[in-house]
Amino acid sequence: MQEIIIDILLSVVILASAGMLIFLGKKSMNKNQRVMMTRIMIASIILLVLQFISADVFDRLDNILFPTAGRWIRLLCYFADYLVIGYDILKNAAIGIKNRRVFDENFLMAVATVGAMALAIYENGEYLEAIAVMLFYQIGEWFQGYAVGKSRKNISELMDVRPDYANIEVDGKLEQADPDEVEIGSIIVVQPGEKVPIDGVIVEGSSSLNTSALTGESLPREADVGDEVISGCISMTGVLKIKTTKEFGESTVSKILDLVENASSRKSKSEDFISKFAKIYTPAVCYAALALAILPPVVRMSFMSVDPEWGIWIYRALTFLVISCPCALVISIPLSFFAGIGGASKEGVLVKGSNFLEILSKTKTVVFDKTGTLTKGNFEVNAVHHNTINEKQLIEYAALAESASSHPISKSIQRAYGKEIDRSRVSDIEEISGNGVTALVDNVKVAAGNDKLMKHLGIEYHDCHSTGTIIHIAINDKYAGHIVISDIIKPTSKEAIKALKSAGVEKTVMLTGDAKKVADKVAAELGIDTVCSELLPADKVSKVEQLLAENKNGKLAFVGDGINDAPVLSRADIGIAMGAMGSDAAIEAADIVLIDDDPKKISKAIKISRKCLGIVYQNIVMALVVKFACLILGAFGIANMYLAIFADVGVMVLAVLNAIRCLFVKKL
Length: 668
Prior knowledge:
23 helices, 22 strands
């Protein structure tokens, strides 16, 4: 019955191998995988043919050639098949012994199968078990390699955003240049269907941008003159002329690729545990197998005066070795983290290492910077109050008076004006530090600034009860009204806080240098638990230190985007930076980068990390329970080589399949 099952399995393997080589060979398998699949098919065919050749056929050769000729020819046929499927395992085991790295899965499989072959030779028995064990082990190894390769391919396709060239216009013609050679401030041209090669600002044209490879967002983003664009986006509809703001090596696409390529170098505690466990476990089971092969026969022979049954106990020891192979743990745990990082990347969340994924899963407190994180970081004119002249005219006077300033408040007024500034209309500009400016606009005296400026000029003004920055305007020494300017809350910030609560985050905190009135309003609108305002950068670090001391039940994450956030990002258990508009210092200091600056992605990242860790723990428990159960059965002679195959290859395949689930995070 056992041999019939093996014959059926071999037939299935042959058909499946042929099918994979025909249908998947060129598309989904690399050269090494195709070679291995060919070896598996050839070895299966040889073994199946040998199974159908009866022992009588080989026995007849004794009469034709010489006595025992049939036995040796039969051995030669099976041994040739064994070498076809297992020569690389034997070679790797020999290299490991030579380099003093003896105890690995290659050594275990080599000893177990060579031992089984030796027993079969000694007893003139069946060679089927030794070859079948090696064959199914190689099938498991191929499957594991294919799964890892598929995972890597998915990630590399996802991150296949590195542009090969940049278009530069020379004498009215487009010439392709190496992106590495394009300097900051150069004008590059991106045509429909092409990738943006370098970060920059659009100076001419408009287009719909496909950002899915970077952010996971399927909807295109409209971009026009003055908008910043990041490398890796694809222009879908229009021709864009872009003034570069970074070198290619410092652009978004290069940083993303660098982060993903280096993520696997930072191992989690779980991975470190498995590595240390394997170093102790493998030698231990080898010595245990040796003891199982020697001690019981010696005891039976010396103390019980019965047949030592060397063959039975050596067979049990060899079975014990096959079962003990730690492939499921050693392979599936790193693969789970690798797939988790890949799944997060697909959603626009870059994790710099599996250790950070593990820490993120334990996050209970999330601390936010305000400007640029929960708000857009772009000041806009929200209202005009108590104006004694036409609203548009008031903004026009203010914009012209502020035309020499590059301050964000001044820029917001100029944007609200919406026209090109005619500097010839402005003269006698005087900036009063900390107060505002005075100027002549069309020979009309204009003062624009805060209440201190009005007091300085002796002009009565109206207080404003709105939250934001208030710019008072006086014309010819008479109060004309004031403009309310405030930072705009990101559309997804409120949802982000709700999503964090539903993801199990117990406390949300906002730290900001803004005035208390502004900070309290934003916190109340978003539903944040605690707010600390009017903080200097050093104060933020102190607050995070305090929160870390209070947060004993979980980890603390800090989310920020500015240069002044870099020290806090480094100090928190886990630092999360806004990648699209965040400063380089913040991105460097952070452990996780959100490519599209969407705070809602934080809860998604936490859910991904928890799914990944859940799968890791499932694989650890499953592998250890099955392994130790089968080891006990093997030691008592209940488990044979075929159960050993399941305990090794079967558990490894199940663990790898489970690990691949980490890639599928779209619906989290």
